[in-house]
């Protein structure tokens, strides 16, 4: 008896497909999309300007770009959906492309290209100066903070050096007083006077050293407190004048306190 004929495809097992990764599930990035046009850049920059992302401090940039992405995606004319991390990359690319084209035009023709020819160029001319200004201001503030920290470190080193010299001087005075006290132990009145003088000098020395230590500790505490403050803390533009006045007042108080300590130590060392 013949066995039933088996089809060659009956036992065929298709190969397993590799699982899709999270990257495969995401929509294609518009940065690699050949259909990206200047009109899309205009919509993107308008969304960024609507959230003030071009003038916001660094600590709030991510939050503003998220809002800009929501505005861009909510437009009926939006050709595709954007993620918030695409906006800063595309904005930077547009600025660099615009600047490169302008430099190329100047190198070929010898004169600067007239701006305002397209809507994108007009928008970039509006956005770029404000963005550059806010970034330059932040860089200046960081440089000022670094200079203040370096000055405080140098002042602390000077105070410690003066304190060590003063300790050595008073230690030498105390040793001389002890030697004088040992040689005059057999005299009566003169010995008592020497002991009292030595004790007074030691008490005065300890008191001065304690005062110097307190001054040094206070100055160092103020320095550590300032160093603990975040240098790049995001601050609203309207709060910056008040913050600058507060910093100037604090610096004046620190300088006055430091000068008082130096004058007092100079008088004692003199």
Task: Describe the protein.
- There is one protein chain.
- This protein is mainly α.
- It folds into 2 domains: 34-105; 144-230 and 239-269.
- Helix content is 70%, strand content 0%.
- The protein has 7 helices and no strands.
- The protein has helices spanning 22-25, 38-50, 61-74, 86-109, 119-183, 189-228, 240-269.
- Helix 2 packs across helix 4 (86-109) and helix 5 (119-183) packs parallel to helix 7 (240-269).
- The N and C termini lie far apart (127 Å).
In short:
The chain has 270 residues and is an all-alpha fold. Helix content is 70%, strand content 0%.
Overall strand count: 0
- Helix share bin: over 70%
Number of domains: 2
Query: What gross morphology would you assign?
Result: rod-shaped
Mean of all residue-level pLDDT scores = 66
Classification by helices and strands: mainly alpha
Report on the biggest sheet: none
Strand content: under 5%
What is the H/E string? Answer: HHHHHHH
> Segments where pLDDT lies below 50 for 5+ residues?
20-34
N-to-C terminal Cα separation, in Å? 127 Å
Supply Rg.
37 Å
Question: Count of helical segments?
Answer: 7
Biased composition (Basic residues): 196-206
Region (Disordered): 1-35, 95-114, 170-252
Biased composition (Basic and acidic residues): 102-114, 236-252
Highlighted features:
mainly alpha, 2 domains, rod-shaped
Task: Describe how the helices and strands are arranged.
Blueprint lengths: L21 H4 L12 H13 L10 H14 L11 H24 L9 H65 L5 H40 L11 H30 L1
Helix pairs in contact: 2-3, 2-4, 2-5, 5-6, 5-7, 6-7
